[in-house]
Amino acid sequence: MTEVFEEEAQISAGLLQKGKILVYPTDTIWGIGCSVRFPESVGRVARIKGRDPVKSPILLVDSISMLHRFVRRIHPRIETLLSHHIRPLTVVYPDPQNLPNDVLAEDGSAALRICLDPFCRRIIQLLDDCLLSSSANFSNQPSPAHFGEIPRALLDQVDYVVHYRQDDVQLGQASTLIRYNSAGNIEVLRP
Q1: pLDDT in the model for residue 1
Q2: pLDDT over threshold 90, residue 132
Q3: Nearest 5°: CA angle at 9, between 6 and 13?
Q4: Is the dihedral of CA 100, 49, 127, 86 positive or negative?
Q5: What per-residue confidence (pLDDT) applies to 151?
Q6: What's the whole-model pTM score?
Q7: Residue 54, Cβ neighbours under 10 Å: how many?
Q8: Mean pLDDT for the stretch of residues 25-54
């Protein structure tokens, strides 16, 4: 790990633990997010984006082990899929636990992804909790493919913008999004 990597991860986790809003790189596209433990921060992310607060966010974890803290039961087919899926995969789980209601969908489900990006994973490890993540764009606008596409007006409203990887112009894309039921049947919501 480079010094900048670790320093930026430490700063980010410390701010998240205080309820601050960040813009940061993920394994997909740049995200805006906060700790799920601060309801006012969860609401603020929705307001900054102009997003309907009823629309549930994606929550990032660092491992299958951490995922088990927030999902009562992971069907074996899903656990196998998570272990072998190459592209980032967000799963809507019907039976979350240990999560505040304001990050759950109207039906009580939650969308969680095991983050594959080493930097974002490090933030989550230091936070020791799941990280609310939404694309760093305004609602109904295109998602940023790299840092340079994030609207300045959005960056001006957050508490901290991570410096790490701002120069990276590799194009990012949203994760695959699936839903599964307790029988293990899978529905693809976003390929």
Answers
A1: 56
A2: yes
A3: 140
A4: positive
A5: 97
A6: 0.93
A7: 8
A8: 94
CB 177 within 8 Å of CB 112: no
CA-nearest of 57, 7, 64, 8 to 35 is 57
Question: What is the dihedral sign for C-alpha 6, 11, 14, 19?
Answer: negative
**Quick one: which of 127, 124, 149 has its CA closest to 138?**
149
CA distance 6 to 156: 24
Q: Tokens for 90? A: 């967000």
Identify whether the C-beta of residue 31 lies closer than 8 Å to the C-beta of residue 90. no
Q: Taking residues 165-185, report their average pLDDT.
A: 82
Identity at 178, one-letter amino acid code: I
Residue with tokens 């019907």: 94
Question: Rounded to 5 degrees, what are φ and ψ at 145?
Answer: -80, -20
Model confidence band, residue 85 (pLDDT cutoffs 50, 70, 90): confident
Please tell me the distance from the alpha carbon of residue 105 to that of residue 127, in angstroms, as a whole number. Answer: 23
Q: Which residues pair with 135 in a beta bridge?
A: 31
Radius of gyration of the chain, Cα coordinates, nearest whole angstrom: 16
What pLDDT sits at residue 70?
98
Other Cβ atoms less than 10 A from the Cβ of 93: the count is 24
In the sheet that holds 89-93, the strands lie side by side as 160-161, 22-24, 31-35, 131-135, 58-61, 110-114, 89-93, 176-180, 186-190
Q: What's the CA gap between 87 and 96, in Å, rounded?
A: 23
